[in-house]
Design goal:
about 625 residues; alpha+beta; DNA Primase, Chain A; DNA primase DNAg catalytic core, N-terminal domain; Dna Topoisomerase Vi A Subunit, Chain: A, domain 2; 5 domains; six-stranded mixed β-sheet; five-stranded antiparallel β-sheet; 15 strands
Length: about 625
């Protein structure tokens, strides 16, 4: 691991505003002195993720994750500690500084593969864009399609990074190789066919219009390639109209929504996302003023994509899909995904054979807005879809529709939303609310899964109520990090052999104690520099960011002494056990036996005088808590 210059890591933490770092990932709202939002680490419907910009740490109560800017980047980007430091330095324009004796001084350390994949996609986008604006037969065919057939301007092409991939399948590979991109990154980028041709990387997008796809914070992670008149054919097989990037470490279709990085800048609790089917539809909507438009990668819409929208805290979602049977069926399939993720959705039916792009070209923004205004709720859409517009359904049809919708409503955790949905269902089916509520209760009781029954539920409940087990090393580390009076006197009376070095907290304490004995007191913000791996950093930060409100000035001294006594007694018992085992061996010589007896006697005397941590008057004059 590279050694950073002294205080460089702390300098990065000081210069990075945690709100600026986290807000592209999580829609944050002010809550007192902190910011709050939905967890970026798991799916939830009630915000439990808190950010304290002043103190520089976050705490996610739903997942238990907590930490600072570096640990946040490590978790959301799946990076190692040095990679996360590099990420922050690049993101906020901070030059990386190495220690003079570091093997990495003067040269960058190896980046993460994700970092390199994002870089190669940025290079590819710029290269495709340059090819698009060239003046040759191929590029002009791409511009003709864009301007004449799709009626987009060249300014819009620049805004969305639209480009052109030449027919020459080896051209992109040559360019990227000249940019010193390694074969490993090229092979994993998804830009090329899996197998080389004649020892060269062959681009999988040949003679196509290139539309870059951005992930949630705006980095390019893949492309959609549209067929053109110059798209080559191989054999009798007609080339597909669209080709998407394959899944890679940075391109996961289920975790992406086209244009979300821009829509998020416009969305708020009073605005709805506009969900359309294709990228060109989304581009058209955006250029015509519908700035909160997004599109899935294909027709499927998954829970992970719904949660991306939910975390932005919108008013809801308006779903615009094709008016044909396939489009209506797809929209109907979206309903459980919306409801189970706590998203209010409306469904607006497009005229059959028309898409948002055509409507906007032919009728302008007013034409599309009038369709959006006629959108109906998820419950209303489900009833209309299943009853096919029948105003007088039979009792059997009412029951079938009710049970279908019950399955959707049951996925919603909010009791308020459940009652609202049931009320709306009653209105559409002309059934009394009490009757509908009783039927819903019966439905949910009958549908309760086996894992929620009886003994297993009790067993799970008992497990959840069990307290978290910590080692004496963990608890002593906690005291050391939260009371600056502990470290120096502890180092004077502490013997490292008392520690269990198989647990991370034991290794951390050993390093901190060694530094204090060698160089004197160490500030908390420097302690992290001694840690060697992410396991140690996670334990360090977990203890550093623990709440300390229940501890008064004397609690830390008492708790530290309890931990110190536990470590001391454990060590003494281990030594006694070893001596007794040696004494039990039949081959012991008399001199050796006498030595062991004397050692055992000395241990037992030592046990009667355990080490005791005390704070001097000078220490007491200093602030006792670090947070």
């Amino acid at each position: 691991m590279p050694m950073f210059a002294e205080n460089f890591v702390e300098d990065i933490k000081d210069r990075v505003d945690l709100y600026d770092l986290i807000s592209p990932y999580v829609q944050l709202k002010k809550s007192g002195a902190k910011w709050v939002g939905l967890s970026p680490f798991n799916q939830e419907k009630t915000p439990s993720f808190y950010v304290d910009s002043n103190k520089g740490f976050f705490h996610c109560f739903s997942s238990g994750e907590k930490g600072d800017a570096i640990s946040f980047v490590q978790k959301v980007e799946n990076l190692t500690f040095p990679e996360a430091v590099e990420f922050l330095a690049n993101r906020f324009g901070i030059p990386i500084q190495y220690a003079e004796n570091s093997r990495n001084a003067g040269k960058p350390f190896q980046k993460s593969i994700k970092s390199d994949l994002y870089k190669v996609h940025e290079l590819a986008m710029s290269w495709f864009a340059e090819r698009f604006f060239e003046n040759n037969q191929e590029s002009n065919a791409a511009k003709d399609y864009w301007q004449k057939k799709r009626q987009f301007s060249l300014e819009v092409a620049k805004e969305f990074g639209v480009g052109y991939s030449p027919v020459d399948r080896f051209a992109l590979g040559r360019y990227l190789a000249n940019q010193k991109i390694s074969d490993l990154i090229l092979s994993k980028s998804g830009l090329f066919n899996e197998k080389k041709q004649s020892g060269k990387f062959a681009c999988r997008f040949c003679g196509r219009l290139m539309i870059p796809i951005h992930e949630k914070i705006g980095r390019i992670c893949g492309f959609t390639a549209r067929e053109l008149s110059v798209t080559p054919t191989w054999g009798d097989k007609k080339p597909p109209k669209y080709i998407n990037s394959p899944e890679t470490p940075i391109f996961l279709k289920g975790d992406l929504l086209f244009n979300l990085h821009q829509a998020n800048k416009e969305i708020n609790e009073n605005k709805e996302f506009l969900l359309v089917e294709g990228q060109l539809d989304a581009i058209r909507c955006s250029t015509e003023g519908f700035k909160t438009v997004v599109a899935p990668q294909g027709t499927a819409f998954k829970d992970s994509q719904a949660m991306l929208l939910r975390k932005s805290n919108p008013k809801g979602v308006v779903c615009l899909l094709d008016g044909d049977d396939a489009g209506q069926k797809a929209a109907f399939g979206y309903i459980p995904t919306f409801l189970s993720n706590g998203l209010d959705a409306r469904f607006a039916t497009l005229p059959q054979g028309k898409d948002p792009d055509q409507i906007l070209v032919e009728n302008g923004a007013e034409g599309l807005q009038s369709i959006i205004d006629q959108g109906v709720s998820s419950i209303s859409y489900a009833v209309q879809y299943k009853l096919k517009g029948n105003p007088n359904p039979q009792p059997s049809e009412i029951r079938a529709v009710s049970e279908l919708v019950f399955g959707y409503i049951a996925k919603t955790d909010s009791l308020v939303m459940r009652d609202s949905y049931l009320t709306e269902l009653c209105r559409h089916l002309k059934v009394a609310f009490q009757t509908m509520s009783e039927e819903f209760t019966k439905f949910t009781r009958n549908k309760k899964p086996r894992y929620k029954s009886g003994a297993l539920t009790k067993e799970i409940s008992n497990k959840k109520s069990s307290p978290r087990l910590t080692t004496a090393e963990d608890d002593l580390l906690f005291c050391l990090l939260h009371d600056n009076r502990v470290a120096s006197p502890l180092a004077q009376i502490f013997d490292p052999i008392w520690l269990n070095l198989n647990v991370p907290a034991g290794r951390i304490l050993a390093k901190i104690m060694a530094e204090i004995k060698a160089d004197g007191p160490v500030e908390t913000n420097r302690m992290e520099q001694f840690l060697e791996d992410d396991t140690e950093r996670n334990v360090f930060q977990h203890n550093l960011f623990q709440e300390v409100s229940s501890f008064d000035e004397n609690s830390f001294l008492q708790h530290a002494n309890e931990c110190l006594l536990a470590l001391f007694i454990r060590f003494i018992k281990q030594q006694e056990k070893k001596i007794l085992q040696d004494l039990g061996k039949p081959t012991q010589e008399q001199d050796s036996t006498n030595h062991l007896h004397a050692k055992l006697l000395q241990l037992r005397k030592h046990r009667k005088n355990p080490p005791q941590l005390t704070f001097s008057d000078q220490n007491n004059r200093h602030s006792h808590a670090k947070n």
